[in-house]
Design a protein that fits this description.
5-stranded antiparallel beta sheet, Helix Hairpins, 3 domains, 7-stranded mixed beta sheet, alpha+beta, Beta-Lactamase, Heat Shock Protein 90, 58% helix
Length: 498
């Protein structure tokens, strides 16, 4: 497979070769034909202008009429180095002028192409090319009919004869020049193409090497700054991607370790207590019920872990699909309070609620309830026994601000930056191992971003941590929708009236 530097070099050289071919074609191959066409067109145009001046005069064509435009005729002859003859309808010469031609005009015309005069006096524009019988020189004769003033008959003819200046000598000179120009351009193009291809391909090769290292699992790649163009931006993106993949790989390994630990413990307890019930406590109701309760708790823990994994996977793969509507905040918090009542009593944690009256938010009720469950569950997991968890909601301007506060240990600043990431877990209760799946806050982040609302966390030195988010006010959102609907119907009615 060819290297990209070779492809770039070949592409630029091909471009230069195509340009040189076009230059040769137009400057050598088509030069003579182009010159002749331009020369003939100029003579015809000027001849038609002279004929037009003669046709505007009354009476039969005669020398008196021609004498009015003698200056114009002389200027035409000397400017274009031609011979000119004006004849009347009876083939009598009225005016004739030569400019250093080797043969008298009438004699040349008579011997070479009298048919041109015949055709011209018949009212046709005529042209003819012929060679000089002795000197092999190309001549051009143009015949332009002169009509009477009433345009009813041909009053005479204007005949123009000129040598077609040979362009072969000019083409030869140009050909020699083009040979040198071609060699110089090819050398310059070769050098420039090599420099450009090397300059462009070198960073691409470095980026490719870095990508290969990433593919092999080497995340610590080193690439110098490659500028601010697209290649430099690509290099920066590769470095960012490597850093992100390194973080993801670390989190993946932590996930495997965490999930292995999380699964091993409840599975061991379930198996151990199941065997105990089978072998020892099956006949003793009190012990059996206690062991069964542990089995049920650990089974629920496994279920929650699996639910978190499935929920986050669904959110990240399919996106968050929202059905937004007004949410009664009091009803929402009451349901959360009831859900955690048993856990509050079991752990000895006090759950308190402080909500302003008549708060109505706007969002997907089920998704926001999931956010609240995850935040409150996270608060319970990191609050010591006899601690407090607070749920607070209040209106702040156009938003409903909802907070979940808990007591524990301050979150470190370096942990704050990663707390919303998947599988990232923080131990905030002294003496306890990290708990939870590390997915709850990642789920919260995805849901709240889909709602396009602000959210965050504040952790203080006294151990109080506050997770907060804001919902749009439901009454304002409904009012805006109503205004948009009214505006639509007003516009529609206006169209109907017209």
């Amino acid at each position: 497979m060819k290297k990209i530097s070779m492809k770039l070099w070949m592409g630029m050289m091909l471009l230069v070769v195509c340009m040189l071919l076009l230059l040769w074609l137009f400057q050598v191959v088509f030069l003579e034909k182009f010159y002749m066409t331009m020369q003939i067109n100029k003579l015809e145009s000027r001849g038609e202008q002279i004929v037009s001046n003669l046709q505007n005069q009354e009476g039969d064509l005669n020398y008196f009429q021609v004498s009015h435009i003698l200056d114009e005729l002389e200027a035409f002859v000397y400017t274009y180095n031609i011979s000119l003859q004006i004849v009347d309808a009876n083939r009598q010469t009225i005016y004739q002028m030569d400019d250093n031609n080797d043969q008298h005009f009438s004699g040349m015309l008579r011997r070479q192409n009298t048919q041109i005069l015949n055709n011209t006096l018949n009212g046709e524009k005529t042209r003819g090319l012929f060679k000089h019988p002795r000197f092999d020189t190309d001549y051009l004769i143009l015949g332009v009919p002169i009509m009477s003033m009433d345009k009813n008959h041909v009053a005479g003819a204007l005949l123009i004869m000129t040598t077609m200046a040979p362009v072969s000598d000019t083409a030869g000179i140009i050909k020699h020049q083009l040979i040198y120009i071609t060699l110089i351009l090819l050398l310059i193009a070769f050098g420039i193409a090599y420099v450009i291809s090397f300059h462009l391909s070198r960073p691409i090769m470095k980026i490719n090497k870095a990508a290969q290292e990433i593919a092999q699992g080497k995340w610590d790649i080193h690439m110098e700054k490659m500028g601010d163009d697209e290649i430099g931006q690509l290099a920066d993106t590769i470095k960012d991607m490597a850093s992100s993949l390194k973080q993801t790989d670390r989190l993946r390994k932590e996930l495997i370790g965490n999930i292995s630990h999380e699964l091993r413990t409840p599975l061991s307890l379930i198996r151990g207590y199941a065997e105990t019930i089978r072998d020892i406590s099956g006949e003793e109701q009190e012990k059996r019920e206690g062991h069964l309760a542990i089995i049920i708790d650990e089974s629920e823990r496994l279920g929650r872990l699996i639910d978190d994994i499935l929920n986050l996977s669904q959110l990240e793969v399919d996106g968050v699909k929202l059905v937004q509507e007004p949410i009664n905040i009091q009803v929402l918090v009451d349901s959360i309070n009831k859900r955690f009542l048993d856990l509050s009593q079991k752990k000895g944690i006090n759950l308190e609620v402080d909500i302003e009256d008549d708060l109505v938010g706007f969002g997907d009720h089920n998704r926001i309830e999931q956010v609240m469950i995850n935040l409150v569950g996270n608060a319970f997991n990191h609050t010591p026994p006899d601690g407090n968890v607070f749920i607070k909601a209040q209106q702040i301007k156009d938003y409903i601000n909802i907070e979940v506060n808990n007591e524990g240990v301050k979150i470190k600043d370096e942990d704050i930056e990663h707390i919303w990431e998947r599988y990232y877990k923080v131990n905030r209760v002294a003496g306890e191992s990290t708990i939870g799946s590390g997915l709850g806050l990642a789920i919260v982040k995805n849901i709240l971003r889909a709602h396009e609302v602000e959210f965050g966390v504040n952790s203080h030195d006294n151990g109080t941590t506050v997770f907060w988010f804001r919902l749009h006010r439901g009454d304002l959102m409904l009012k805006n929708e109503a205004n948009q609907t009214d505006s639509y119907y007003e516009t529609d009615n206006r169209y109907n009236k017209s």
